[in-house]
Design brief:
five-stranded mixed sheet, mainly beta, four-stranded mixed sheet, Immunoglobulin-like, 17 strands, about 230 residues
Length: about 230
C-alpha cells in the first residue's frame, strides 16, 4: 500500500528559552474503511460486557476527518542526549475483552502495569524482537503484572485466548512521543532546540516523516496526512 507522505511545517518564534513544543494533527485522505465488527461470541463473559456491537481499532477515522491511534515521536536529532525514566507507572488494561489503550508509548526503564479487569482468562503475548518476549496468562480479575523494556522498538501484543485482541507498544529512549486521540491532534512537549525528524506510525498505513526545526522558545507545527484506499 502506498503512503502519501506530507509534512507541513510551520515555525512560530516566542520569547527566550531552550525548548519548544511540536504540535500538529494527522488527517485522513479518502473514504473511511468500514468498521470491522468483532465476534466475541466465543466467550460469553466478553459478550456480557458489551450491550452493543464492538468494532476493531485498526483504522479509526474521527468525525473531523483525522486519524486516531497514530504514534508520533522524535525519530532523529537528539544525538546522545539521555533522559531518565519517568517514575509514573503506565497502565495497560484488559477490559471488555479488549486492550486499552490500543496504542501505547513508554520510555526505556519505565514501569508498565498490565492489568486484567475482566472476570475471564486472558494472556498477554508480546511479539517484540528487540526486547525479551513474554507470554503471561492472567486468569483472575484484578491480576497485575509489571514489565519494563530496555530496547527501542514498536511491537504488537496479542491474546491467544481471544484472537481479536491486539494492541501496540512503542518503546522510546526519550519522552518526546504521543498518540493521536479523538481529534487527531498531538503535542510533543519541551523538545530541546534543534533540528529533528518527526515520524508518524500507523499499524495499517505505515510511516511518514517530517523535518522540523525547534528554535529557542520555538513552537513548531508538523501535520501529517495518510491516504486510504
Amino acid at each position: 500500500m502506498k503512503v502519501l507522505a506530507i509534512g507541513i511545517v510551520t515555525l512560530c518564534l516566542l520569547s527566550s528559552a531552550v525548548a519548544g513544543d511540536v504540535t500538529g494533527k494527522v488527517s485522513f485522505d479518502g473514504k473511511a474503511p468500514a468498521a470491522v465488527k468483532l465476534k466475541m461470541n466465543a466467550d460469553p463473559i466478553c459478550m456480557k460486557g458489551h450491550p452493543t456491537d464492538v468494532y476493531g481499532e485498526e483504522v479509526v477515522v474521527n468525525k473531523n476527518g483525522t486519524l486516531k491511534n497514530v504514534l508520533i515521536y522524535v525519530k532523529d536529532g537528539l544525538g546522545g542526549k539521555t533522559f531518565p525514566a519517568p517514575n509514573q507507572k503506565l497502565v495497560f488494561d484488559q477490559i471488555g475483552c479488549a486492550y486499552k489503550p490500543h496504542v501505547l508509548g513508554i520510555q526505556l526503564g519505565q514501569e508498565l502495569e498490565v492489568l486484567n479487569s475482566d472476570p475471564t482468562l486472558h494472556n498477554v503475548h508480546s511479539l517484540s524482537k528487540m526486547n525479551t518476549q513474554f507470554n503471561q496468562a492472567m486468569p483472575i480479575k484484578g491480576m497485575k503484572i509489571t514489565k519494563k523494556f530496555d530496547k527501542v522498538e514498536t511491537f504488537k501484543v496479542k491474546c491467544e485466548v481471544h484472537t481479536w485482541m491486539g494492541a501496540y507498544i512503542g518503546v522510546f529512549s526519550h519522552p518526546f512521543y504521543a498518540v493521536t486521540g479523538d481529534d487527531g491532534s498531538f503535542t510533543l512537549k519541551g523538545v530541546p532546540a534543534g533540528d529533528y525528524t518527526i515520524e508518524a506510525w500507523h499499524e495499517k498505513y505505515g510511516v511518514q516523516t517530517a523535518k522540523v526545526k525547534v528554535d529557542a522558545a520555538g513552537k513548531v507545527t508538523a501535520d501529517f496526512k495518510f491516504k486510504g484506499n
